[in-house]
Structure formats: structure tokens, C-alpha cells
């Protein structure tokens, strides 16, 4: 028997280590890892049926994905780069961004060029290709508000297809790519219709955006609104480069009006926002906080951020298994108190 049973095993190349490819910083390995920076490489993998024998998963910047254990298949990292104007008229510009672009850098590019519409989505972690999957949103704006279409590769046939706004079936943090077509398409690029300056109206109604601008004596401009939103986010959300996290770990709860009214009788102080005539959004952070035992607490290597109850953080060495365990406990405790089953926004693989 060898004294060092692992000493003959081949060293695992660095590129298979996923620690730098997920914002939570889970240290796991992938059996195969491919950087996809052009459609042909991807289509080759599909057409040659290389992916048929093993699982595969598509990764953007890994800001919404946590691996429970080592991944025994192909990780396909979207590394498609490029931003270009594809159409323009007096009032609008249609901009196509490749899926592997960093979302925040893309937002800044649009701001520098004077294109309005996504400044409220500043500093959302992740890639352009991941943005439509969960219809990212913040401060009163969602991706769907400016979305024109996207181009994606069908992972079964290798065909390149276009999805219109209606085909994407966007909802609150939701799209067809999270449901029926989950894992079936690789998003190559996204086309947004943005406003030129004279046509742009700012959305300042949500949260403290307007108040902050006024306190600073600033008029709304693409840059000033983006700066204020970055400030607000930095005040209450941890920087994943400093403290690993996936942003909001759970989705907010959306209830029908009648369900909400019953619950509101029992908890009259419950914050709530009307999404539509029959849909009321409840902040899950508030529900978690009311359970009393979570915010700011640490459990070994992981914990709940002290400034925001929706955020699970990695204090160092946290694993997907620990996150899965903690998130289950939180789900149970919210259910016990409110009878509501909260849902994860983050995918645990
Ligand atoms: N609240 C608490 N306790 C907390 C934090 C918040 O009770 O610890 C309550 C307060 O009543 C507060 C309300 O929750 O007014 C809303 O909080 P916040 O403005 O922070 O927004 P959120 O609903 O928790 C959503 C998005 C964020 C986005 C913000 C701002 C989801 C799941 N999250 O959070 O998105 O930045 O609104 O628009 O919809 C993300 O998806 O990763 C993300 C950070």
C-alpha cells in the first residue's frame, strides 16, 4: 500500500478550479472547463456530441451559481466579448452586447455614450448573458423594460436562434430560460433599445435615489444617477471581491391580493409594494429579519450579512453544502412564522 495514495494522481490544471469563477468563492473543481469565446467552438462541441456523455453547465460570472461539490461534467464559461450599435434613429439606439461582457462595465459604456435606460442597474454583479435569464432588476427598472431581443445557441441542435421580448416570457426575476428552457440555450448576445439623452426619462421613484441626489445638490444625469445607485448598493451590499456572496440569495415574495390581505391582518407592519392590481411584493429580507435569529449571524465559514438579511456571505472556506444547509434552515423558519415558502434566487448545482 502506498503511504501517499494521492502522490501518483495527476495534478489538476488550475483552469479547472472554479474558485475564481463564482462570486461566492466556493472552491470546487470541474472535470472539464471550456472558455467559449466564439459560436463555432460551441457548435463544434454540440455537433460532435462531446457534451452528450456528460452533464454540462453554462456559467457567466458565477454570481448566481453555487456548486455543492466538484462538478463532474463540462463547465462552459461564456467569454463572448464585444459591444456594438446595430441600429439607430433620432431618439433611440439599439445596442448589441455579447454575453460574456461584464454587466456593470457594459452599463458604464452606455452611460459614457449617453444612452439611457440601464443606469439604475449599475453595479449588479454578473454578465450580460446572465441578465435576461433572471430578468435582473433594481431601483424600479428591470431588464425587460429595455430589452429588444437576444441571440442564443440551441444546445441540442447547435442552431443559432433569436428570441423576441415576448418569447422570453419575462417575469419578476424570471424568464423562460429559468423554466421550460433551463440549460437548453447558450446566450450569445443581448440587444437593448436605449434612449438618447433628449428622450430619456429617469426612474427615481424607488428607494432613496431621489433623496440622495437632492442631498448632494445634483441634477439627474446618467452618471449622477448611476453614481448614487452605486453608493446605495455599496452601503448595504458586500463587495464579492472582499466578502464572497451572490447578491440577494432569495427572491422577494409575490402574493395575490387576497393572500396578502389575510397575512397583513396578522402582520400589519409588513412592508409591501403593489406589482400589479392583483400582485403584491413582500420583501423577503423583512420576513427573514422578523424570524429574529438570522441577520448578522455566523455559522462556521458562512453567515448572513449584518446589513442585509437577503445576503448569505462566505467568511472564507464556505462550501456549497453549508450554503444549502443554511438556506434550508432559513426557508423553514420563514415558513414556520409566516406560512410562506420563500424561493432561492441563486442556483445550487
Ligand atoms: N429589509 C429588511 N431587512 C433588511 C433589508 C431590507 O427588513 O435587512 C426590507 C425593508 O423593508 C426594505 C425592503 O426590505 O425597505 C427592501 O429592501 P431593499 O431595498 O434592499 O431591496 P430588496 O427587495 O431586498 C431587491 C433586489 C436587489 C436590488 C434591490 C434594489 C431581489 C431579490 N433583490 O432587493 O437585487 O438591488 O431590490 O432595487 O429582488 C440581487 O438580485 O442580487 C439584488 C441585490
Strand and helix map with partners:
Blueprint: E1 30-36, H1 39-47, E2 56-59, E3 65-66, E4 71-78, E5 83-88, E6 92-98, H2 103-112, E7 115-116, E8 137-138, E9 141-142, E10 147-154, E11 160-164, E12 185-196, H3 209-215, H4 222-236, E13 244-245, E14 253-256, H5 257-266, E15 273-276, E16 279-282, H6 284-290, E17 298-299, E18 302-304, E19 312-314, H7 320-338, E20 347-348
**Class based on secondary structure composition and strand pairing:** alpha+beta
**Radius of gyration using CA atoms only:** 21 Å
Total number of domains: 3
Low-pLDDT residue intervals, each spanning 5 or more residues: 1-14
H/E element string? Answer: EHEEEEEHEEEEEEHHEEHEEHEEEHE
Mean pLDDT: 93
What does this structure look like?
The protein is of the alpha+beta class and 349 residues long. The chain starts with 29 loop residues before the first strand and ends with a strand. Strands 5, 6, 7, 10, 11 and 12 form a 6-stranded antiparallel β-sheet that branches. Strands 13-19-18-17 form a 4-stranded antiparallel β-sheet, covered by helices on one side. Strands 1-4-2 form a 3-stranded parallel β-sheet, covered by helices on one side. The longest helix is centred in the last third of the chain and has 19 residues, at 320-338. Helix content is 22%, strand content 26%. It has 3 domains: 16-78, Uridine Diphospho-n-acetylenolpyruvylglucosamine Reductase, domain 2 (2-Layer Sandwich); 83-236, Uridine Diphospho-n-acetylenolpyruvylglucosamine Reductase, domain 3; 244-348, Uridine Diphospho-n-acetylenolpyruvylglucosamine Reductase, domain 1 (Alpha-Beta Complex), CATH 3.90.78.10. The chain is globular and about 60 Å long. The protein binds uridine-diphosphate-2(N-acetylglucosaminyl) butyric acid.
